[in-house]
Amino acid sequence: MSIDKFLEESQQIIIESVTPELDGGRYAVKRVTGDCVEVQADIFRDGHDLIAAALKYRVMGTTEWQETPMLKFDNDRWRAEFPVMNIARYEYTIEAWNDRFKTWQNDMRKRVEANQVAPSDVLEGVALVEKAFPRIQSPHHSGQVETLLKTVRQTADPVAAGGLFLSEDVTRLMDEYPDRSFSSHYRTLEIIVDPLLARFSAWYEFFPRSQSPEPGRSGTFVDCIDQLPRVAEMGFDVLYLPPIHPIGRSNRKGPNNSLDAGPHDPGSPWAIGNENGGHKAIEPSLGTFEDFDRLVKAAEKLGIAVALDFAIQCSPDHPYVKSHPEWFFIRPDGTIKYAENPPKKYQDIYPINFYCDNREALWTELMSVVQFWCQRGIKVFRVDNPHTKALPFWEWLIAEIKREFPETIFLAEAFTRPKVMRSLGKAGFSQSYTYFTWRNGRAELTEYLTELCQSEMKDYFRGNLWPNTPDILHEFLQEGGLPAFRLRLVLAATLSSTYGIYSGYELGINTPVKAGSEEYLNSDKYQINHVDWSQPHNLGGFIRQVNQARRQNQALQYYDNLRFYQSGNNDKLLVYGKTTPDRANNVLVVVNLDPHQAQESWIGVPFWEWGFSEHEPYQVHDLLSGAIYKWQGEYNFVRLDPAVQPAHIFVVTKG
Amino acid sequence: MSIDKFLEESQQIIIESVTPELDGGRYAVKRVTGDCVEVQADIFRDGHDLIAAALKYRVMGTTEWQETPMLKFDNDRWRAEFPVMNIARYEYTIEAWNDRFKTWQNDMRKRVEANQVAPSDVLEGVALVEKAFPRIQSPHHSGQVETLLKTVRQTADPVAAGGLFLSEDVTRLMDEYPDRSFSSHYRTLEIIVDPLLARFSAWYEFFPRSQSPEPGRSGTFVDCIDQLPRVAEMGFDVLYLPPIHPIGRSNRKGPNNSLDAGPHDPGSPWAIGNENGGHKAIEPSLGTFEDFDRLVKAAEKLGIAVALDFAIQCSPDHPYVKSHPEWFFIRPDGTIKYAENPPKKYQDIYPINFYCDNREALWTELMSVVQFWCQRGIKVFRVDNPHTKALPFWEWLIAEIKREFPETIFLAEAFTRPKVMRSLGKAGFSQSYTYFTWRNGRAELTEYLTELCQSEMKDYFRGNLWPNTPDILHEFLQEGGLPAFRLRLVLAATLSSTYGIYSGYELGINTPVKAGSEEYLNSDKYQINHVDWSQPHNLGGFIRQVNQARRQNQALQYYDNLRFYQSGNNDKLLVYGKTTPDRANNVLVVVNLDPHQAQESWIGVPFWEWGFSEHEPYQVHDLLSGAIYKWQGEYNFVRLDPAVQPAHIFVVTKG
Question: Cα distance from B458 to chain A (closest Cα, Å)?
């Protein structure tokens, strides 16, 4: 390799250890609109010459870079930040160059101070300024430079002449027109900028078919509309509906996952497709497209986004099976393979072969499904079991959809090995389910949430915490009753900025299909249920309080600001806090993890993080009980009786 | 982008978090011959299909990859290792593929166990084996496969037929010929494999001109030859000589860095070049090329490598100044710039302009200097102030030289900002000077050596520890006297596998040029000194003991195996250990960091790391005193009196 070719590749100025950066730039990091993106990097070169650097950024697809100067703050570490105001994919990079003028100027300052300036030293400065001249774009600045050079030439004393270059005006002027012809450039990195809802959202899941006020009749979209005020009243932002498409008839499942469905059993909505259509059709018993549109609009008016389920699997009756058998796995005998985990068989489901020969048509068709619902106003999708589908497919699909509909949010319903879950976040999913449902102790909650919110994961994986789902009724809820429901709700809603519950939680429903199972008895998954929502809601008011606390406190709307604090030796108490970047809003949460017994302890309160001194009292206002306490210093006492109140959600203010 | 193009770039199987890997593969990591390189990676894909992976490696420039299977050991983490036996640049990468046969075989095993095998299930296996057939290279294996297929076809019962595929023989056979047509490939990474000397070396530095037995006369290479047995006797492997080239006459420095050199003052050897030549010439008063060659050969016979200094700077009298003025910095008045740190001037030195227009000729000429000395048998270079030269130049030069002379070792004499020092290691320097000389307390030694030997730096930065150099006589040695010299030597020689001392250390010479200075009085840098080496060496025997301990204990020859242990509350005692990878050799070192007072404490001994149980006595044999103690369990007592012995270097063996 020629030396110049080598030099081109191995740049003069080293730019490295850039944050944020995910896997060497292989994947985009995530932010939401309004965020300020802070970028840091090690930037340095050999020798003692001064360097300058700029952070450059733009919305992808636009041509002009915007830029902001980077500043060195410590040990060759530089920083700058830029705001992301558009819901779009951004790119950013760093450019660094030798600041020849400032290097010379610094030397000149020392020479002038030491009264040791040679005429040649001055001429070097003249040459640098003359070289900058063609880069100057403002006539005013050109005039300033001409005056400077004229004055220098008229000044016989080299010390005096050198001194003319040292003013702040000259520095500013030369900073404006640097010689960047030998710049070093970092690779280009990407950011997905989502709407705030991708980070801050409270989800509520229900099955439309179970929303009928009359027992025995299938609920419809119209019935769902009637439920919206109740959902809004509790303070939810997202209403997630399991698949609303026609349900397969072959090998349909009966109540409680039985294999012998009766003629009137509705089947599992995840067995998608029958003679009425597939992923772009609506199950007729739920209503029409017009009804659906009305539901979406009515929800929107109440500030609720309707989320659909995107489950890529087909019942044997799905239209795809006839039109595109090649999209499935074909057995040697020519039949299509149903889902299996030998020796278990799931004969009501045909999985898709993402890498089949006709994948171009398959992937395009699947994308058109999402486009179809986006065009009907859907902005949020919960994706069923994405880890059993092709990872590259998700990376491709999400990028394509967000190019056309940038505000779209995808929640990954993946419960699998940790690295596979992370890879879905890297592939572009806006949010992901987590292991939260199975983390109940102080140590495991602290460890897991620290990983989610403080490790590198915070840049690409937004953990959506669900205390229950139609698939998971944890033993903790079965055993702990309403106090357990309350405390798990506070944890989900305040540990993460995004969480959700499955309908019935507000009533404390907790009967499993059998002892030792995490499945609900008579689950909505396999049958139409009827709930009398006019009965008093055990937890409705409480949920409303918690969601109100989230809406009124910006600190709870951030994801990566979670910090854990001490709770003495009582490991039944979990203490944590969240603070806005400007420290204007500070929330401290204490949760009694024990649904059975009152717990008490001195807790460690990080008053210094809020800018208070050791001797300054501060006020903690409990948003759940309304009580206000004056506290001071690090150690303060709390006692929480689960029969009365499972947690404090304190807003902390200057006392 | 078409879907297939996208799929090509975004591979089916994810391979990430590979170790070792430096800055995403931008730089090579380092090992020495005989090492086993362990490579780990996260390797996984969506879904439940089984995958397989291979670690591939080769000497760069050769065409055939060698490979070894990787094995999953935990949570989608895989590992494998390969030996590096050549002194060469290696490359390695990872390939992973879907193991379709094993996936099918696993399912079949479950089907057979459940007695639920469909004929179609068997046919899938037949198809997979038939597809493998063309890949089979051994006729014996082809025969086995034919027999298998024939037997399967003759077996009517699907359960029995399926069972035929489950034998270990079939597994091994199919493992041998996997379908790798849709493999995922990781990027190619590089390793510089050095000779052992790059990791394990004891350096001794002296000025040839001070080696004369007659006061007043300049020492010669012949005098150096006479000193070799003394150096070998102390146990050193590398004899490093400051520049041996003709010394400039313009603005020559006099004794103690004075500006008024007398006519007979020899000047600083770092002001290179005069009418007798430059970097490819020898200062005539030192002798001839023949003398030099004799010195190199004589040293080699004693197991000592002669190291030269590569200092890229020129005196105003260097031949380059006339032949290539364009390689220097030219002032506007046409003169060449001398080195400056305004208002300080170093008029005896002209720095080089590495990015000058004629850089192609400059870089090539500088490389030819190193080649010149390599051709004369020099394998070790100490590079003067490399951080003030172009970083890309070093990356280019070291790679070029090591392509031709792979065994060459470069030591970076850089004392500058930490990230610049690291970048020299990344650029290819085999070893580097460190801040060790200024680290004397327990906390700072522990922190710094942990960074050097246990952080990512261990893969590319080998810290060479020097208790003194001609430029640094630390206050600790000035104040602490011989006990300080002893303890600093033990630290340097046992904390790192590579260390060095500057001549005079063995006599405890510690007079500074003035109070508060780290410069030696009457430094060899500016004058010819005469030392009567026949006088008793205060520390010669001690140094010999320590170097012998290093040679006889493999554990001290590794760099990244340093571990620190507890020394109770006595922060004057530093406790650390080194163990070979096979645990065959275990060394425990205890150093009293206080040169003035005896110190004692219970220390924490990590008996479990050596495979001993709590109740098992073990033997510690002090290589300095010869004493042998029986110890047991974690806590044992030590007392070290600096007047008697500054340290224990224990070899630990089963009691």
Answer: 17
Angle subtended at Cα B154 by Cα B151 and Cα B155, rounded to the nearest 5 degrees? 90
To which residue do tokens 């890529």 refer? Answer: A312
Instruction: From chain A, pick out residues whose CB is under 8 angstroms from the CB of B120.
Output: 331-333, 335
Instruction: Show residues of chain A in contact with B108, CB under 8 Å.
Output: 342
Residues of A acting as catalytic residues: 384, 413
Digit-coded pLDDT (tens) for B533-579: 888 888 999 999 999 999 999 999 999 999 999 888 899 999 999 99
DSSP letter string over A25-71? GTB-EEEETT-EEEEEEEEE-SSS--EEEEEEEEETT--PPEEEE-E
For residue A552, the SS3 value is helix
Contact predicate A43/A73, CB 8 Å: no
Helix (H), strand (E), coil (C) string for A71-122:
EEEECCEEEEEEECCCCEEEEEEEEEEECHHHHHHHHHHHHHHCCCCCHHHH
Burial A625-647 (b: 16+ CB within 10 A, else e): eeeebebbeeebebebebeebbb
Q: Is the ipTM of this complex over 0.90?
A: yes
Task: Answer whether A420 sits within 8 Å of B16, measured CB to CB.
Answer: no
A359 to chain B: nearest residue by CA? B3
Contact A124, B332 (CB under 8 A): yes
User: How many other CB atoms are found less than 10 A from the CB of residue B36?
Assistant: 10
Q: Quote the crossing angle between the two packed helices B359-375 and B391-404, to the nearest 10°.
A: 40
Per-residue model confidence (pLDDT) at position A493: 98
Q: For every residue of A180-241, which 3-state class applies, written as one string?
A: CCCCEECCCEEEEEECHHHCCEEEEECCHHHCCCCCCCCCCHHHHHHHHHHHHHHCCCEEEE
Beta strands in B136-280 (DSSP E): 184-185, 189-194, 201-205, 238-241
SS3 A586: strand
Residues making up chain B, counted from first to last:
655
Cα angle A204-A210-A214, degrees, rounded to a multiple of 5: 130
Does residue A351 have a cis bond before it (omega within 30 degrees)?
A: no
Pairing of strands B51-59, B66-69: antiparallel
B129 closest CA partner among B117, B146, B112, B113:
B146
Measure the CA–CA gap between A399 and B55, rounded to whole angstroms.
32
Contacts 24+ apart (CB under 8 A), B627-630: B630/B655
Q: Kindly report the nearest CA distance between residue B514 and chain A, in angstroms.
A: 25
CB A31 within 8 A of CB A194: yes
Positive or negative, the Cα torsion across A270, A273, A278, A282?
negative
* Inter-helix orientation angle A139-154/A168-176, to 10°: 130
Backbone angles phi, psi at A287, to 5 degrees: 125, -165
Q: Count other Cβ atoms within 10 Å, centred on residue A153.
A: 11
CA atoms lying within 13 Å on the CB side of residue A183: 15
Helical H segments across A496-527, by residue range: none
Question: Which of B3, B105, B393 is most worth mutating to test chain A (most A CB atoms within 10 A of its CB)?
Answer: B3
Q: What's the CA gap between A473 and B359, in Å, rounded?
A: 71
Spatial distance between the Cα atoms of B568 and A8, rounded to a whole number of angstroms: 54
Q: Could you read off the pLDDT of A170-211 as tens digits, one per residue? A: 999 999 999 998 899 999 999 999 999 999 999 999 999 999
Per-residue pLDDT tens over the stretch A404-430 = 999 999 999 999 999 999 999 999 999
Question: How much is the average pLDDT of B280-302?
Answer: 98
What type of residue sits at position B482?
L
Task: Select from A59, A56, A18, A16 the least CA-distant residue to A180.
Answer: A56
